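# nightly structure sweep
# worker-07 picked up a monomer target from the shared queue
# config: single-sequence mode, recycle default, output format = structure tokens
# input follows
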Amino acid sequence: MDGSETAPNDDYEHPDELEYILESVLMPSDDSEEFKCLADDYNSVLLNHCRCKGACENSEVCPHGGQYEANTFTGDGSELLLRKSADPVIECNDLCKCCRNTCSNRLVYLGPRKHLEIFDSPVYGSKGLRTTVNIPKGGYICEYAGELLTVTEAKRRMQANEELNLMNYVLVLNEYTSDKKQQVTIVDPSRRGNIGRYLNHSCEPNCHIAAVRIDCPIPKIGIFAAKDIAATEELCFHYGGEGQFKKVTGGKPCLCGASKCTGFMPNTTIDD
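# output follows
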């Protein structure tokens, strides 16, 4: 991605044979106009930088601030927490005038949290992701990183996954303004991805996703704690997408075991 933003600090490794990436990257070019539009957005830089001095604590001071607050879980202010899950988040970036070391509007920018562990989940019979320490509600987990896809390529991959009975990792994030769809971001970590790909689905998840923009019009898909999470607890989010949970009556069986489990995995859909 163009721009001066530094790469996130991520020292996790995959146990699987695929390319580990620190943040989402473009799919290979198919020379389509759709891909060219996606590439243009990917290589664009947001220029709405702030001119704050210091912490960027709230939206009254910083045009980007207001979404994060100091940790109230321990009271020591050692961690920033997401205030609202429904609102888009805009973080400060390298063009901003604020101090990087004291700014309270840089979280996803820094990379995934520490003390995460990929393990063999007894619930799902597959690999999963868990925490080895307590995580407060609103705490940042990691980005759901992978290849950024066009709608056409996403539909092609999803159809191939269905025909070959492969695991579908394609995640579709729809953003809305006044009930009107504003932007669609599609990420697939099946070939290139990070630890976000190991979070399993739950009908009663302890994590949720949120769109987070730093220096690019295309958001990062941030995964945050939806409630206080205890050490050794497996991390899960709803594969139906943030605010798009629908009752599912068919598809692959869901193994989450939640009291309100629908019995089926949510089907990934892309609205035309």
